[in-house]
Each structure stands twice: as structure tokens, then as C-alpha cells.
Amino acid sequence: MFKSAVIAVVDDDERMLVSLDSLLRAYGYTVKTYSSALAFLDAGDCEHTDCLISDIQMPGMCGVELYEALAAKNAHIPTLFITGKPGLPPQFSARVRKPEGYFSKPFDTQALLACIERALKRGR
Fold it and tell me: Which positions does the record annotate as the modified residue 4-aspartylphosphate (predicted)?
């Protein structure tokens, strides 16, 4: 485990933020939560984030747009996407080159943790 790894979680659902914060902290990660993609970008934490978990569909800037904004800044953070909607949104595969993982809510927490570990091993 990468105990000192910083995981950023971006989701407009407060319950999901609290749930993932608790889960990831229980496994020894440092967690930072953001209620929107813009809040994450405004915080300026890109350089200090080892892995990003982002909801796909959020008001304002969606998770895919966040991914694109980070790529435009040359901030290639390993990214896992989560969604409450069934199926991939239109053009997801064309716009997201290398997602570390894609999970529909509710998701298997062990699969999510394993995916985070793989992403951290690969790094940026």
C-alpha cells in the first residue's frame, strides 16, 4: 500500500464524498474531497495529488471535462471515474484516453482499492 499517497475525490454527492473519505482513510491514504471539478482546480492541488477519483456527471464541469482540463495543463494524474448513471456517457472513450478505472455506483470497494493500488504503482 502507498500509505502516504494523496487521493483526491471529486463528487457533487456529499454522501459519496464522506463514504469514500472514510473508506480511503481506513486504508491509510491521505484524502482530499471536493464537491465540484472547479473546486478541485481552484484548490491548486494537482501537483500534490497521486490519484484522482471523479464522478463523471456533475453540475458545471463534468468529470470528463476535468480530465481534459488537467491534460491541457499537462497534469497527468491517474484517474478513476465513478458514476451513478448506467453505461458510459456519449463519447467517453473518445475523450478519455487512459482512465485507470470506471465504476458504476454502487461499486465493489475491494475492486476500487485494487484499481487505486495499480494506478499508484504505475504513477504519472
Answer: 55
